[in-house]
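Here comes my example:
=====
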Amino acid sequence: MIRALSAALLLASPTVATAQAVDQAPAAQAAAPDVTALEPQLTSIFDAWMKQSHVPGLVYGVVKDGRLVIVRGLGVQDVATKRPVTADSLFRIASMSKAFTAMAILKLRDEDRLSLSAPAERYVPEMRGWSYPSADSRRIRVEDLLHHTAGFVEDNPWGDRQQPLSEPAFTAMLKAGVPFAQTPGQRMEYSNFGYATLGRIVSNVSGLRYQDYIRREIMAPLGMTVTGYDVLNGPQERRALGYRWQDDAWVREPDMADGAFGAMGGVQTTANDYWRWVSFLLSAWPARDSADAGPVKRATVREIVEGSNFVSTVERPSASGQMCRVATAYAMGWSVVNDCEVGRIVTHSGGYPGYGSIVMMLPDAGVGVFAFANRTYAGPSRPAAQALHALRQAGLADERPVPVSADLARAYDLARTVWKSSDPARAPLANNVLLDRDLKRRRTDIADLKRKVGACRTDAPITAISAMEGHFTWTCASGNVAGRVQRAPTPALSLQVLSFTAANP
């Protein structure tokens, strides 16, 4: 008989931020919306998954507009003592560590201390004698390591167990070289070895151990005071111990010390620390004019969604559980997922002996969900996706509207003038417009449509697609009019698209 956790739901006190380490997007300046009404539903989602997956303990958090608006601990961090999981319980987050390594590389690039397009062997001399799979193979670039396109074999079964490898042993491994699965740059294949190599680059370029560099330059400025890599020298009473589910019981996984492969999976953190990282990342959206206040520039943070163009498309459950085709590309320490219901999700999971974790962010909505669990490879991806969908359905994770630029507002005014006069020549038209359909026919089109729909109210706001394009809908006596304006790419305002069509009410 399967033995499941029967203890009552153990809740940590919610922690709400009162001060920010970084400048937030404009939406974050307003009072945080009340999401607490959704908390019982989200907790039920994670609790059901935890019990079904035989997970001793879990903590999840919701970040919205720069604040930790929900955080809850469920179950226990230690099966023997029954100590409950709280927002201060320490979990290893496995491959979610890669995001910190990638950010360190980008920060060093910003400081002109390395180049992403440079051969990795420039910064790791041990790679210079490697044998490549063909005479015409190009050398591995730093960006190949970031995108998992260096040609290495997928190494999840092996890589996780290299965590405690010493630096001298890793140096010897690098000198010996590695076999290749394919030539560099040809396709994406997930490589823990590649991210361990990025950790060596951080150390060599910065002159610090990569762990020390990341803690000093990224974690500490964000107020992540207990996050780090050395799990054996921290507060042991706060650790969520790692377990596997075996023979209908939880079996303690041996701890792995910090080592050379920590750059790919060694971070240990708490919900009360990790939310600051999520908040910092989300604060990079949208682009704006205010000064940068974080440890890395906002424009650099936004690069984490720039994938390597090796996009995979698979049929799988969307955020709501409905089957749909989902496109995914690996970027810089993150996967970028085009979910058919929720939209763009920036995410990474973590799987490790004793632990499973997930973070999912909607950067265009300023919302993120993360969760940590203490069972081997038990990544809570499914409940995190369900939580995102629940937030979106409740109107708590809507994408921020694109602001209407002054020129787009002017273009919309011109559309009103054209409609009122039935004369497109009243607007500054780009040279393609009358070549695509002559002025006489365009005037006739507008007159015919006006007779069909009758008088229209033209005071509806325009919805911006970008600073140069928008669409609108007018309510008319006998129907609706859908319109679109789009500027041409010229300094002086001219319209390359000006359209009016009948639309159903």
Summary: The chain has 14 helices and 18 strands. The longest strand covers residues 67-78. Residues 1-21, 26-32 have pLDDT under 50 and may be disordered.
